[in-house]
């Protein structure tokens, strides 16, 4: 049932119509086993969409991303990349700005956004000014909060500490450098990235979840905009940090939008 849902939804609602659907090469049975081969993380091209791999009745895997239709979640694995310092990102790929990203992941932003699209997550793509093909600014009207009220997402990080499962919405780990108050976990907005010359730009920049709002990132923290600024300094909480390399699971969800009466 879910597989039929996936195929139908991909055919009719995938908003990234200019992306190329390029299936990965056939498995080489003569290739060395994963543990024997030198492991290299291929850089994303912003175009490749791997074959969907059904995991069970409710879940499919897209690259390194798991889409759960029943729970309406998109999740992926990551590792702690910073335990101190200034942050501009919650999560980047290895080709992103790792010197200011809390987490690093091999999950392609294109596949993450595809998963959210399959689950019909609402997104708001008019939050930032944009340029035309000649790099001229297009007319822009600053959006009102009610314009993107249905496009917020919830992000939770799950990890193991002292043998026990822990969860964080990042409000205890990412804090204001001056006030030491945590970021507001209710201020994550699915703004989506964009395609240029056929490539999803978040994949090329390596941006996955941005604290310092970026047009290229598919998910942005807009709490600073609510305060009238977007230059607040955010840091790893000195009182709450995790060892480098700690394995975590990042799960993204969106509350169903109630139909208007």
Write the layout of secondary structure elements.
Blueprint (H helix, E strand, L loop, with lengths): L1 H12 L39 E2 L4 E4 L2 E4 L4 E8 L5 E2 L1 E4 L8 E4 L4 H10 L35 E8 L2 E5 L5 E3 L11 E3 L4 E2 L2 E2 H5 L1 E4 L8 E3 L1 H4 L7 E3 L10 E7 L8
Parallel strand pairs: 6-7, 14-15
Antiparallel strand pairs: 1-2, 2-3, 3-4, 4-7, 4-17, 5-16, 6-14, 8-9, 8-17, 10-16, 11-15, 12-13
Give a written overview of the molecule.
- Helices cover 12% and strands 26% of the residues.
- Strand 2 and strand 3 form a beta hairpin.
- It is α+β, with helices and mostly antiparallel strands and 261 residues long.
- About 11% of the residues have low confidence.
- The strands form three sheets. Strands 1, 2, 3, 4, 6, 7, 8, 9, 11, 14, 15 and 17 form a twelve-stranded mixed β-sheet that branches.
- The chain has one domain.
- Keywords: Signal.
Q: What separation lies between the terminal Cα atoms?
A: 30 Å
Category from helices, strands and their pairing? alpha+beta
Number of helices: 4
Helix content: 10-25%
Order of SSEs:
HEEEEEEEHEEEEEEHEEHEE
Main pleated-sheet profile: 12 strands, mixed
Radius of gyration: 19 Å
Low-confidence stretches: 11-39
Mean pLDDT equals 84
Strand content: 25-35%
The coarse silhouette is: globular
Q: What is the count of β-strands?
A: 17
Keywords: Signal
Region (Disordered): 26-48
InterPro entries: YdjY-like
Protein name: Lipoprotein
